[in-house]
Amino acid sequence: MAEANDLVQAFDNKIHAEEKIEPKDWMPAGYRKNLIRQMSQHAHSEVIGMQPEGNWLTRAPTLERKSVLLAKIQDEAGHGLYLYSATETLGITREEIVQALHDGHAKYASIFNYPSLTWADIGTIGWIVDGAAIVNQVALQRTSYGPYARAMVRICKEESFHQRQGYESVAVLARGSAQQKAMAQDALNRWWWPALMMFGPHDADSAHSAQSMLWKIKRKSNDELRQSFVDQTVPQAEIIGLEIPDPDLKWNEQRQHYDFGEIDWDEFKQVINGNGLCNRERLAQHKQAHANGAWVRAAVAAYVKGKTGESGE
Ligand code: FAQ
Fold this sequence. Notes:
The chain has helices at 2-16, 29-48, 50-54, 63-88, 94-102, 119-140, 146-174, 178-197, 209-214, 222-239, 265-275, 279-292, 294-308; strands spanning 250-252, 257-259. By secondary structure, the protein is mainly alpha-helical. Strand 1 (250-252) and strand 2 (257-259) form a beta hairpin. Helix 4 (63-88) runs antiparallel to helix 7 (146-174), helix 6 (119-140) packs parallel to helix 8 (178-197) and helix 6 packs across helix 10. It is globular, with a radius of gyration of 21 Å. It starts with a helix and ends in a 5-residue tail after the last helix. The site of Phenylacetyl coenzyme A has 28 residues, from helix 2, helix 6 and helix 9.
């Protein structure tokens, strides 16, 4: 008993002292479970997030845009891989993590259940979807679990490039022909509210926030992060002459922040419960790709077994 209390005390002391918790350290079962949940969902988001963009690879307007888009999508796959590996350090296998996605037990970011209808959507995803992801992930660089925090440092560097290329692409459309500008505005109209939903429910309605903040898994609350994103994005839209689709958006001199309208939480709930526009398509495509890759996994396992005598699974 005394020993168990010592372990809890040592864990609490580390959290308090801003030291990282590492895979071999003792940690409360709830901390481990919560991290597996958040990190695996984060990994799934990176991987599923490749789909709306991959859909435009063959239709990119120039060779340069195509190369940039290809590099970005490959980066997202890399982010998924770092995050799956970091999650595995918590004692769960990749197979179990992927199975949870396929069974519908694990979520992924709601935003990727919206369709990318025009080329302007691709720039807009870079600008505001990666933009929202960065705001969240910069805070997560200080998360208390070492492997997650370190993965975030590299991921943030790459996401910054994604955000900039997206903003530049939208800026080109916004100063192009009237039709191009209208296409950019239409994309912003459709992606703005889903981007705000990426930060999750209001703090008061967030199931995991209170405990995650105490354990320093989350360093800023859902609402704080959402506000930072709005504050940084509104001036960016102004510079390129696009309008944020929110009649309630207004600078609040007293708060020194933008006030903004209410999110459609019914839509959010529908999307995270599997009923968004593309949920079924996204999951079906993931299952198909996973099945297509079975022979690669089998070949790797056979290779490792041949070299080391271990199963490689
Ligand atoms: N979508 O109690 P909370 C990217 C769920 S990466 C779906 O507030 P929490 C890169 C939540 O899981 C984007 N589900 O939850 C890229 C929970 O359900 P559960 C991904 C959501 O964890 C760009 C329930 O609602 N980033 O975009 C969402 O404390 C472009 C209650 O919510 C991350 O994952 C949502 N938006 O806070 C790739 C960052 N919001 O698990 C390609 C890491 C909430 O009990 C192209 N994650 N839920 O079944 C986080 O920071 C947190 O998990 C939050 C949610 C803030 C997302």
